[in-house]
Design brief:
The complex is a heterodimer.
Chain A lengths: L1 E4 L3 E6 L6 H10 L8 E3 H9 L11 H31 L3 E5 L5 H13 L4 E6 L3 H10 L6 H15 L10 E4 L6 E4 L5 E3 L4 E4 L6 H10 L3 E2 L5 E2 L5 E4 L10 H13 L3 E3 L3 H10 L10 H33 L3 E6 L2 E7 L13 H9 L25 E4 L8 E3 L2 E3 L1 E2 L6 E7 L3 E6 L11 H8 L13 E5 L3 E5 L1 H13 L15 E2 L13 H10 L5 E6 L3 E8 L2 H8 L5 E5 L8 H17 L2 H4 L4 E9 L2 H34 L6 H23 L11 E10 L2 E2 L5 H14 L8 E4 L2 H16 L4 E6 L5 E2 L2 E2 L4 E4 L5 H4 L6 H7 L5 H22 L4 H15 L8
Parallel strand pairs in A: 1-7, 2-4, 2-5, 3-4, 5-6, 8-14, 9-12, 12-13, 15-16, 16-18, 24-35
Antiparallel strand pairs in A: 9-20, 10-11, 14-15, 17-18, 19-20, 20-21, 22-23, 25-31, 25-32, 26-27, 26-28, 28-29, 29-30, 32-35, 33-34
Chain B lengths: L1 E7 L5 H6 L7 E5 L2 E10 L3 E9 L2 H4 L22 H7 L4 H5 L14 E10 L5 H8 L5 E5 L16 E9 L1 H15 L10 H9 L10 H8 L3 H7 L8 H24 L4 E5 L5 H6 L7 E5 L3 H14 L9 E3 L15 E5 L10 H12 L3 E7 L24 H11 L5 E8 L10 E8 L3
Parallel strand pairs in B: 8-9, 8-11, 9-10, 11-12
Antiparallel strand pairs in B: 1-4, 1-5, 2-3, 3-4, 5-7, 6-7, 12-14, 13-14
The chains are: A alpha/beta, B alpha/beta.
Amino acid sequence: MQIVLPHAGIVLLIGPSNSGKSTWLKSMIEKEEILPSEVVSSDAFRVLVSDIEFIDWRDRPKDEADNLMDEYQSISGEAFSMMDSVIEARCRLNKLTFIDATNLHPEDRKRYISLAQKNNVPILSIVLDIPEEDLLVRDEQRDYPRGKRRIKQQYQTFKREKRVLKKEGYLSLYTLKGTEDIQVIRRTNPIEKDIQNGIDIIGDIHGCYKEMILVLEKLGYQKNEEGLYLHPEGRKFVSIGDVMSRGPESLKTMLFFYEHVQKDVAYMIDSNHGWKIARWLDGRDVTLNHGDEKVEEEFKAYEEEYGSEKAEETKQTLKEFLLQAPSHYVFTKNDVQTLVCVHAGIKDAFIGKQSEAVRDFCRYGDTNGFDEKGKPVRKDWYISHKKSSLIVWGHDPKPQPLLINNTINIDQGVVFGGALTAFRYPEGEFISVQASQDFSGADDNPLREWEKNRLNPPNIGKFVNGYSVLTEKMGEIKIHQDIVKSAIDTVSHFTIPIEQLIYIPPTMSPTPSPSALEYYLEHPKEAIDYYRSHGIQTMIAEKKHMGSRAILFLFKDTEAAKKHTGFESLGVIYTRTGRRFFDVATEEELVLKINQDLHESGYFEKYDTDYVLLDAEIMPWNLKAKELISSQYAHVSENAILDRTMLKEKIAEASRENMELKGWLEEYEQKLENAYTFKEVFQKYCWEIEDINSIQIAPFHVLAHSNETFFDQPHTWHMEMNREFAIRSSLFVETEYKLITSEASEEEVIKWWQDITSEGHEGIVIKPEFYISRNKGKLLQPAIKVRGRKYLNIIYGMDYLLPKNLERLKSRNTGKKQKLALREFSLGIEGIQRYVKGESIERVHECVLGTLAMESDPVDPRL
Amino acid sequence: MQLTIQASGDNVQAISYLLSKNPRNLYERNHKGHLVRLFYSKFTETELEATIFVTPDPIELVKGNSNSYDITHYINDREFAVSSIFCSLIRSALGTALNGQPKEEHTEWVNHPFSFQFEFGPVVSSLSDNQLKDLFEPIGYEVMITRPEIEYSFQIKDKSSARSISLKGMKTLQEGLRHLFVLIPVIDNYKHYYIDEKEIEKLERYGDGWLKDHPMRDYIYRQSLRFKEVYSIVENRKPEEKKEEKESKVRLNDLRYEKIVDTVSQMNPRSIVDFGSGEGKLSVRLGFVEGIKEILAVEPSQTAAIKALGRFEKVKNKEKFVVPETLWGSLFYYDERLKNKDVIILCEVIEHIDEYRLPKVLDTILHDYQPNALIITTPNREYNEVYDMEDVLRHNDHRFEWTRAEFRQWCTERNHRDIYSLKFEGIGEEHDTYGYPTQMCVFERKED
């Protein structure tokens, strides 16, 4: 007799004591057909929890017998509860487990059946049907005989239960009259496959046969004489389902996959449409709609062409094919599960398992879940994906492949006039073919819906109680409730509209430690040391302009702006806090001039882009900070100079007679000089603003074009781009920079810093060569500012360099600032990448709001 | 921060006894890092000049303040200006003189007037030179004010905001110092300094004998005791500014609430959303609308919402009152809790939003939340003529104010799917030409 064992699940042995369960299992272990760890035995667990395997209470006085029975029952209770935990853990881990116990009582079996169900693994039972006489004989021969009466009792129960087993719902039920000549066949997991020479996963085809062939050809597949598409390198392709319905050639596409799957050169996964068609072919009562009716029409035409016999045969073939399509595939690379392909979605606990619940989930995704008021909530299943395996899925058309939380959606709605996407694994490349037209004829075209809804107001419920952003660069970033509200308040009252506010630049930390030199608070050495000690050899030093930080979001034309933001403007210029930088009229004038300059020099054409997003400093300082300069800086300098001049003169006059006053005089001479330095420094960053031509814009990062981001470019590239901007428009100015690659170039940069800062320039920013730099996987500070000695007068006060002051100021701590800088940096990149990929403004706003919230968390403003 | 005391005439040297400072020594005391210093620059039979000044520790000065997350906390004039900080730092150094208690043998000079000149500065004050004079001249000083010239490389301000003041007069030293100790905090542009009830006692002690009859007595009191609460202990008088205008405003508010409540009542709603509910003045009235089951008071400002809660608390036990639920929300986000309500109200809200952001807000309300009715009120700009306001808006946070025609056209455009019928009304006292001060539009969803 043959027994077929699945790769995982529960094998329930059923039979009275002495029926030979343990003996049989032992023999299989000896023959290495099964592993010892695959057997869970109640006897063994009794010993494990109590050191006792069996208690005999026969021939004992009643009081003793009762107590012994009690003891045996509590031992059994503990043993079974431990055993069940082990079985459940093994089920969760998708392992095979033999349960070696009598399992005569229906409630025991029910418990295991529901355990298997709960964990989405199969359960089968093997019944050992041994005559009563044999049982009794064996009992007498064993170490701890159970006794005649008990054996007889058990046999009675067994006889009664044997009849109902069939209806209990096992995957299979084997009845053995003995344990000799039993052949065990073990199956591997049918949905686990090795990637072999690589695989190409194709999104929802929906009968777009032509586009499918084009994608296969683009992927390098070639048609052989049998009409099969094979890859010269032996790669295989996988459909994530919905190969049929809605589109023009469903039948042809299904047959195509049938042929290829039969020949083991392709895979196809179950899906909602596939399942519907399968049940229709199976003669079930289903309503064909949402494009399924087109499949029926195709079958009718097929029948007319090939006759009803052939049609019936094809129907049967395809029915079987569709019904057998697995819910998902797990692909392994060097025996490690790294990739999951599924139609609509999957929970981590379902991966590698096949049950009704799993199949259902994989076909439709997570449609359950209701809010407290009973309204259905579409749960985004991928949010709870915590495992490292990459999940590739389709089902829900998005304009671009959507990468969220280690899942990739590759349904780009070819049937709706979008594109058919293929994802090459393990290469991680996308290949796509544009649809020749919208085949669906659907009124509710999901791609158009997506586009229409992209700019919808973000759902406040997602943010207001605090939330997390999953960033590609730093993983999960938590935004706490207490800082979210003030950020939402800011967005509601002061910022530019949410649809235009796609990026807030990160804060920047000064040198992590103060200068080791006596007369400096900051010095380039500490910034360079920071990067060197983190494995960065090449750095860039950029001159830091002193004006106000600004983001310029500039469009090719108003039409492009309307498309991307919903507003017909040529662009916006906004501050670090998301507020409009200029008044409306000045902004319009500036943006128009830049737009004209960029058009004249063919910028938008050269880069084939609808917009450019720039990170810049706008000068002069008084443009934005006039009030601050007038009421703080100028005012303070006037008071300081008046106070110190009066005192210096008085002391000087008196010191002619009183030598003791010399000390005070020197002190006040120095202090008056400090006050004059202070006054000199802030004026350095200001000039008269006659018209917009007095304005200088120094961009330092080109963040994005409508089709790409530039975070993979080195800073030298960004600097070159900035030079290009300065050539294209007189409003832009170039930024000086130098590279640090050696001791010599380091010296040169320090000298340069000394020179420009002693003239009063703010300082420099030191960055690693590449925009995103890591050391041992940890993200490094994207930039460190090193401000000049003079400049810091207006930050730390005019007397900050006096030794007793400087000493105390050096104890500053940049820890929090650095932490914020990294988080805001990651959020910024994430938001822009989402925006460029055409994701919803809600997903972009999640990042922007996060940075705004972090900026409302107080940090020493002098850092 | 400095004060120079000059005196001329006979017996001026006695002043050193009153000050209790030896003219041959430099005086220096350390108060938490701030150095209080005094030196004499003249000491002859007929001339005396002493300067007391403070060299503050700038780092100590900015320590441990709740406002320390703003750069203005670190770069400011407190280190230099004569202020209440200055007064408290020099108080103990000048204690003997202020209290008029020199050594027994010198008490005769306490009440002896000298020809004094007090020079102090820098003074940071919002008062004009003339206003400063009005403070000192009535108590017998000749006032000289100097303001340094300024020069900047670009146009930033017209004149220096630092001044020094010089006062000349025949006074006793105690009188002079007491005048200064009362009036320096009055003229200083107050910043970061907490004033408590002790201040009243000080004011009365130093002001004894002169403050009572000072023509600017009320002003001096108000400025000294800046916190209204403290001031009201001394003077149980309410500020009388623009009483009339306020009254008319209050009346318009009430009329507006009444009108909205009337309109709402006629609709027999079960659920109402009061957007931008502020301190809950409208929401609390809506709680009494017949048959109402749910009022959502949506407000993004935490402080306003807390006041609203207090307002609801007061009436919550009244018969038939439905307590509004305060929701923290914003017009620029989608909030599913606001869907399918009977009435949504935007009472004096839209004019606080940039005009170009409004169409989308209204789209969300009319086409996503889909209330049976939407009520919007906003000022009628035409009516500003009646207030003689010329080009000014009624509130400095108003981003716009519309004429009746503008409002009508805007509302009509918002109903671009034509699923609402619109009704326009006015609130307040009607003017023949300019209409009502407040305009209202009621959007009601047409029957399907």
